Amino acid sequence: MKIKQLLVTAAIGAAFGTATLQAVAAQELVMGHGAAPGNPRSLAADKMASLVEQYSDGELQIQVQGSEQLGSDLQMLQQLQTGALGLSANSQGAMANIVPQANVFGLPFLFDSPQAAWEVVDGPIGDKVAEAAEKRGMKVLSWWSNGFRQITNNVRPIQQPEDMQGLKIRTPEDAMTISIIEELGASPTPMAFGELYVALKQGTVDGQENPLVNIISSNLDEVQKYLAMVDYQYQVTPVLIGMSTWQRLSEEERSALLKAAKEAQDYQRGLMLTQGDDLLKEIKEEGSMAVSEVDKAAFRKAVKPVYDQWQEELGGIVTDAQKAAQQANKTDS
Questions:
Q1: Which domains, and CATH codes, for the chain?
Q2: Tens digits of per-residue pLDDT, 153-209?
Q3: What does the pLDDT average to over 79-98?
Q4: Whose CA is closest to 103, among 173, 23, 56, 47?
Q5: 189 conformational bin, left if phi > 0, alpha if psi -120 to 50, beta if neither
Q6: CB neighbours of residue 162 within 10 Å
Q7: Nearest to 161 by CA among 303, 326, 16
């Protein structure tokens, strides 16, 4: 009888132990991103993980895996939708493949400054995009910054839109970016960011477009000769959680995530500003790339047709974004 009781007790204990292990596992979320170490996205992801553990009293932990260890940005978003991945500090272009409304942030020359962009992103326009994301199985926790995008190449300095003619430019799989590069007369070539360094080195593409922090943290200046400070497009870094993952978290865990994501957002945006300024100064001093300023008025004029194209694609949110950006640009000026 005692032996039978011991066996029953052992079985109950084993079952309880398994349940406990499952509960512990459910409290650890994996967060994927595609940035290199030292990039503001990478640093902020690590900070967010630390803050989540702090604010949840250790009940919720985040394991960060960067540098596309879990696949491309688009693949990570698909994993969020299925619940195979918990979180991702992702990219606007990849998100726009699933949530077309996210394209609106990337309209060319929409914002005059990062601060103006943040005002719009954190307001009703950002809320509309976030609502659309939830319908596609992803919840926006915060909008980090991916900054203004510049253009580099190995063929010639770029100062006028005409200088873009015929250049083969790598882009992300981002319809908005592709439409802008096409309008400028270049040939957009979408490919994963992790493939870019080799593609530039081998001459598969002539150039690429990215914020300075992405260019330098991934050593693209080693394989590029010319940098044009175009500031032609602002992009966000959406921090997303799969809805199926979000729904199984407790209220306390959700609160910890949201608080940590917002604090990490402020930290990441600050890094984007300071690193960008410092890197431009360093590039000019060291001469790692020849830097050119561009005729922005000419570039603005050249890409005007993009607005008509995307008005047809997205409808009223384009007009709403333009109005919000105009007001934000005035406020920040």
A1: 2-332 (3.40.190.170)
A2: 999 999 999 999 999 999 999 999 999 999 999 999 999 999 999 999 999 999 999
A3: 97
A4: 173
A5: beta
A6: 12
A7: 303
What is the token pair recorded at 166?
A: 């015929």
Q: What is the pLDDT of residue 18?
A: 41
> Span 287-297, mean pLDDT?
97
Torsion of CA 2, 7, 8, 11, to 10 degrees: 160
Q: Is the dihedral of CA 299, 304, 309, 314 positive or negative?
A: positive
Which residue from 139, 324, 103 is spatially nearest to 234, judged by alpha carbons?
A: 103
Q: At 78, is the secondary structure helix, strand, or coil?
A: helix
pTM for this structure? 0.90
Distance CA 23, CA 264 (A): 26
26 vs 61: CA distance, rounded Å: 10
Chain CA centroid to CA 239, Å? 8
Question: How far is the C-alpha of 232 from the C-alpha of 183, rounded, in Å?
Answer: 12
Whether pLDDT at 14 is above 70:
no
Please report the pLDDT score of residue 27 as a whole number: 85
CB 260 within 8 A of CB 51: yes
Strand partners, 153: 207, 226
**Token output for 114:** 């990062």
Contact indicator for 227, 283 with CB cutoff of 8 Å: yes
Torsion-angle region of residue 109: left (phi > 0), alpha (psi -120 to 50) or beta? Answer: left
Q: Which residue has tokens 């919000």? A: 324
- In whole angstroms, give the CA distance from residue 193 to residue 40: 16
| Segment holding 139, helix H or strand E | strand 138-148
pLDDT in tens, 18-62: 434 444 444 899 999 999 999 999 999 999 999 999 999 999 999
CB distance 33 to 245 below 8 Å: no
Sign of CA dihedral 271, 116, 102, 172: negative
Helix (H, G, I), strand (E, B) or coil at 84: coil
